[in-house]
Design brief:
- By secondary structure, the chain is an alpha/beta fold.
- It has a domain of 238 residues: 3-Layer(aba) Sandwich (Aspartate Aminotransferase, domain 2).
- The chain is 35% helix and 15% strand.
- A 7-stranded mixed β-sheet has the order 6-12-11-10-9-7-8, with helices on both faces. A 3-stranded mixed β-sheet has the order 4-5-15, with helices on one face. It has a 3-stranded antiparallel β-sheet with strand order 14-17-16.
- Helix 12 packs across helix 13 and helix 13 packs parallel to helix 15.
- The protein is globular.
- The two termini are 24 Å apart.
- It binds pyridoxal-5'-phosphate.
- The site of pyridoxal-5'-phosphate has 14 residues, from helix 5.
- Keywords: Acyltransferase, Endoplasmic reticulum, Lipid metabolism, Membrane, Pyridoxal phosphate, Sphingolipid metabolism, Transferase, Transmembrane, Transmembrane helix.
- It is a single-pass membrane protein.
- It is an enzyme of class 2 (transferase).
Length: 553
């Protein structure tokens, strides 16, 4: 039985959340008065509610100029230091050409290495910070220092305790160690152990795997699903099983590396369309249908559109209804990666199909991971039974990879049951609603303060633009001094002039935690000048309150 109160925030979900009305039909008002169209599997489709627009406010001109100047200055210093290294006045700790191979084409002297040595090394202390508790809403970090300007780090043996975690993808707070919550996981470990030592096709097809897959299919409202031990491999190993030579992949320019790797491994032709840009996608589809393959002009065997539900660096939401319309018009297939959106959006957490009121069966390949909203590891592919059966016998990750560990399977199963309410509690739905409320509160307050934040108002991934290279390190260090752990991101994960902090809001964050983070951001935004937005927002954010909560039945 799940207990909803009385545990420490570090156990995952917090007891400090506002109490929720006993009646689940009294819920968050953001989809109030909406009509629900049920697909008969508990997957309600919500029509005509505010799905939110993606926002990508441009920086004022002076910020762009200062950013380029900042990069110019550190690049100049970089060249100066390269000179010092070349004459032996400064030690270089990075891999270098071997003396006996100095006539070879250089292995290491590309721009990225220059960038790593001279720019990244200045701020490297802001990444790879070791943590020593679970990644709940609050965690402990291991203190470390560098004696050689960030080339290496030494642990001091001390910890930085009770840091608010604004960086982990723990959207629904299922990364938790509450003994009651994890009871069935412990029981599964006792029954099956941890390792299965074989592939699903050989001797590791356990009942727990089958139960999980049935539950995933039911949750998503599709015929069938299959689970894989690793989210990354779910993409990179299944895409090659679906398309190959003579096929065309149309891929969003901001797709995750696992999708890109899968596309490359498949041998299909890859064309990249502008992020979430329907004109760009339609132009490519039209061209593909009209002209066919290069040289021979034979029709493409398959055209596969590859997109994500929520983009993890931009916080933007896929424009699913438009993409579905295009896919139908040009008879293409759609591969949708819901790594960040499953559990995190949609009135009952069923991802972007539910968010947009679209029948999940219209998406040919539904992919997602269990690493984010489910506090576990692994991924799934879901859709028609024929698709899943085909992948069971053709995907490398099904045939050659060891099956998912039983306790991990059980963790996902219990999280799914909790979200679906089949565990007899309303805790899962409470978390889904709490995440929506936290997301809206956090985003609206940041906008009100005058920060430039990217993405959709419903996205719990909240990128806050820092732009200037000098501000990236200053921001992250100052936040840690205030006991707030943040993720900062720069080139090559973002365009070189769009460095940012990327917050991940969680249902496990309490209002007090969010307020502490917001207050620190407000102070820091003034002291290191980060409030670049020229849009004026209302002084009082429109936050929801419990009396607005409504979940249509
Ligand atoms: C969109 C997307 N797909 C796939 C993955 C890979 O998933 P995992 O980290 O579970 O291996 C990620 C990882 O963050 C992701 O963001």
């Amino acid at each position: 039985m799940i207990r909803t109160g009385g545990h420490h925030p570090r156990n995952g979900s917090s007891s400090n959340q506002k109490p929720l009305e006993d009646n689940i039909s009294v819920k968050n008002g953001y989809h109030r008065n909406e009509k629900v169209h049920s697909n008969g599997k508990g997957n309600g489709f919500y029509r005509s509610w505010d799905r939110g627009e993606d926002s990508f406010e441009e920086a004022p001109m002076y910020v762009a100029v200062l950013t380029y100047m900042g990069f110019g200055i550190v690049t100049l210093f970089g060249y100066f230091r390269e000179l010092l290294r070349a004459v032996g006045l400064e030690k270089c700790n990075q891999a270098q050409e071997r003396e006996e191979q100095k006539d070879f084409v250089p292995l290491y002297q590309d721009f990225e290495n220059f960038y790593n040595r001279n720019l990244y090394m200045r701020v490297r202390d802001n990444w790879n910070r070791p943590i020593c508790t679970l990644p709940g809403p609050v965690f402990d970090l291991m203190e470390r220092v560098s004696d050689d300007n960030n080339w290496t780090f030494r642990l001091t043996g001390r910890t930085i305790d009770n840091v608010i975690n604004m960086g982990s993808y723990n959207y629904l707070g299922f990364a938790e160690n509450n003994v009651d919550f994890l009871k069935t996981v412990a029981e599964t470990t006792v029954q099956y152990g941890v390792g299965v030592c074989s592939t699903r096709q050989e001797l590791a097809n356990l009942t727990v795997h089958k139960t999980l897959e049935q539950l995933v299919a039911e949750f998503l409202g599709v015929e069938s699903a299959m689970s894989f031990g690793m989210g990354f491999a779910t993409n990179s190993m299944n895409i090659p099983a679906l398309v190959g030579k003579g096929c065309l992949i149309l891929s969003d320019e901001l797709n995750h590396t696992s999708l890109i790797l899968g596309a490359r491994l498949s041998g299909a032709t890859i064309r990249v369309f502008k992020h979430n840009n329907m004109q760009s996608l339609e132009k490519m589809l039209k061209e593909a249908v009209c002209s066919g393959q290069p040289r021979t002009h034979r029709s493409w065997m398959k055209i596969l559109i590859m997109v994500e539900g929520i983009y993890s660096m931009e916080g933007s939401l896929i424009r699913l209804p438009e993409i579905l319309a295009l896919k139908k018009k040009y008879k293409a297939y759609l591969y949708l990666d819901e790594a960040h959106s499953i559990g995190a959006v949609g009135p009952t957490g069923r991802g972007v199909t539910e968010h947009f009121g679209v029948d999940p069966k219209e998406v040919d390949v539904l992919m997602g991971t269990f690493t984010k909203s489910f506090g576990a590891v692994g991924g799934y592919i879901a859709g028609k039974k024929e698709l899943v059966d085909y992948l069971r016998s053709h995907s490398h990750s099904a045939i050659y990879a060891t099956a998912m560990s039983p306790p991990v399977v059980e963790q996902i199963t219990r999280a799914l049951k909790c979200i679906m309410g089949t565990d007899g509690t309303r805790e899962g739905q409470r978390r889904v609603q709490q995440l929506a409320e936290n997301t809206r509160y956090f985003r609206s307050r940041l906008k009100e303060m005058g920060f430039i934040i990217y993405g959709n108002q419903h996205s719990p991934v909240v990128p806050l633009l820092l732009y200037l290279p000098g501000k990236v390190g200053a921001f992250s260090r100052a936040m840690l001094e205030r006991k707030i752990g943040v993720v900062v991101v720069g080139f090559p994960a973002t365009p070189i002039t769009e460095a940012r902090a990327r917050f991940c809001v969680s249902a496990a964050h309490t209002r007090e935690m969010l307020d502490k983070v917001l207050q620190s951001l407000d102070e820091l935004g003034d002291s290191i000048r980060l409030k670049f937005s020229r849009r004026r927002c209302p002084v009082r954010p429109q936050v929801c309150n419990e009396t607005d909560f409504e979940l249509d039945s």
